[in-house]
């Protein structure tokens, strides 16, 4: 009898666990420190809606954007590296769906989420090797506090495969009862200007800052597999995709110990799928002092030079014949 009673109590406890978890998350999602949920801080997610990457503003704009000719996607190298205005001069509409620390895993689910609205003919994916060294959790943290609920965000959380991804999803969506996303605003970020179409312009310069030290570029097999999935998805929609890496400061590139080896793994995927891979570190030299906002990203001057060369190469491919 005692064993039967104990088993019943255990079964009841297990059955109630999801409700208890959701109740705790709901309460903690309403408590904030400095504008950030206590639960988010507990799991290491210090991203706030409308933060530094302008993800909130970008994801709101994409919901108002119809079909485009070109879609730019990838990490901060994308949203800081491709200026839609330069492509509009040739008569091509575009949107930049880059976001903070976005890996191919995150890219894949973002494409599935927004493709029905954007339906681009050409996808330009920033494929910086360092973006393939992560698990996608940091990007997911940023996206989940700025994106409306969707099935693709849940699938992204499951694909990341970390319990904190599910905690972050619950915190963001249950927290919406306390602070609805629609009422939150994008903050102004000093030295940055959001440009319609998803681009973030930065006029600053890196100065004489030195890199922190040597880094090993350890490309993830999981991210390479998601890169293949991204390519497969885009081509299944009847669109073209090109992989691009914008130039880095020479001092940064010198500190990436095995950059060429890591890049060759991306080259291998591109070759196997017959997709162009253009690493502009090979054939475009920019000024370390004048063309970068920091040791990782282009400033407005660098973007202008980089996009000009990119556009000329795309023209030679017959992809950007001016619209009359």
Question: How would you concisely characterize the structure shown here?
Answer:
With 324 residues, the chain is an alpha/beta fold.
Spatially, the strands of the biggest sheet line up as 4-3-5-8-9
- How many helices? The count is 13
Shape call: globular
What is the strand tally?
9
Give the termini separation.
Answer: 85 Å
Q: How much is the average pLDDT? A: 87
Category by helix and strand content = alpha/beta
Radius of gyration: 21 Å
Walk me through what this model shows:
This protein has 324 residues and is an alpha/beta fold. Helices cover 47% and strands 10% of the residues. It has 13 helices and 9 strands. The chain has helices at 2-29, 38-42, 55-62, 76-79, 84-88, 104-118, 137-146, 151-160, 163-175, 221-236, 250-255, 259-272, 300-316; strands at 32-33, 36-37, 70-73, 94-96, 122-126, 193-195, 199-201, 240-245, 277-279. A 5-stranded parallel sheet has the order 4-3-5-8-9. Helix 1 packs across helix 9 (163-175) and helix 7 (137-146) runs antiparallel to helix 8. The longest helix is centred in the N-terminal third of the chain and has 28 residues, at 2-29. The radius of gyration is 21 Å and the shape is globular. The termini are far apart. 42% of the residues are buried.
